[in-house]
Amino acid sequence: MGLLQPEPGLLIWMTIAFLIVFGVLAKFGFPAIQKTLDERRKYIDSSLEAAGEAQRRLEGLQTEMDGVRQDAYKQKSDILKSAADAREKILAEARQRAGEEGERIIAAARLSARNESEAILREARHQVAMLSVAVSEKILRGKLEDPQAQTALAEKLLSEMERGKAAADNKEA
């Protein structure tokens, strides 16, 4: 006989040995293998679940980061706008103060010029009056005896004073 045609006794012992090995494996081997496979499956499922949770958290953080970035850009633009408004306000106030100061200086200069002009006119009038008194005094001394000469001289002085006053008034205007 050969390998291709086993003897019936050998075939029975081989079947019995196979059933014993299969029974031992079924009782002790297969449950251990199944337990290991179940643990491995649970570990893979939990790892996939953790990876999915990490992906969701990452997407949430990305969304939150985008929101924070947009808020930062908005705050930056608000701060820049606020700074530009403050700058414009400060410049407007400075211009207004400069204009007011310029007007005050111009008004003071006009007042000073008017006061100086009036002082010059008073001085000129005073000098004219003094000159008139001096002339009158000389005339009175020289011609106190002749009434016609006194009258003509007084009229001449009055006309000269009126011309001097008209010329001074023209200068003021």
Automatic annotation (TrEMBL):
CDD domains the record matches: ATP-synt_Fo_b
Coiled coil: 44-71
Classification via InterPro entries: ATP_synth_B-like_membr_sf, ATP_synth_b/b'su_bac/chlpt, ATP_synth_F0_bsu_bac, ATP_synthase_B_chain
TM regions (residue ranges): 12-33
Membrane topology per record: Single-pass membrane protein
Keyword Kinase annotated: no
Molecular function via GO: proton-transporting ATP synthase activity, rotational mechanism; proton-transporting ATPase activity, rotational mechanism
Cellular component aspect of the GO annotation: endomembrane system; plasma membrane; proton-transporting ATP synthase complex
Location (main, coarse): membrane
Domain of life: Bacteria
Subcellular location: Cell membrane; Endomembrane system
HAMAP family: ATP_synth_b_bprime (MF_01398)
Family: Belongs to the ATPase B chain family.
Protein function: Component of the F(0) channel, it forms part of the peripheral stalk, linking F(1) to F(0). The b'-subunit is a diverged and duplicated form of b found in plants and photosynthetic bacteria.
Subunit structure as annotated in this protein's UniProt entry: F-type ATPases have 2 components, F(1) - the catalytic core - and F(0) - the membrane proton channel. F(1) has five subunits: alpha(3), beta(3), gamma(1), delta(1), epsilon(1). F(0) has three main subunits: a(1), b(2) and c(10-14). The alpha and beta chains form an alternating ring which encloses part of the gamma chain. F(1) is attached to F(0) by a central stalk formed by the gamma and epsilon chains, while a peripheral stalk is formed by the delta and b chains. F-type ATPases have 2 components, F(1) - the catalytic core - and F(0) - the membrane proton channel. F(1) has five subunits: alpha(3), beta(3), gamma(1), delta(1), epsilon(1). F(0) has four main subunits: a(1), b(2) and c(10-14). The alpha and beta chains form an alternating ring which encloses part of the gamma chain. F(1) is attached to F(0) by a central stalk formed by the gamma and epsilon chains, while a peripheral stalk is formed by the delta and b chains.
The name this protein goes by in its record: ATP synthase subunit b
Name of the gene: atpF
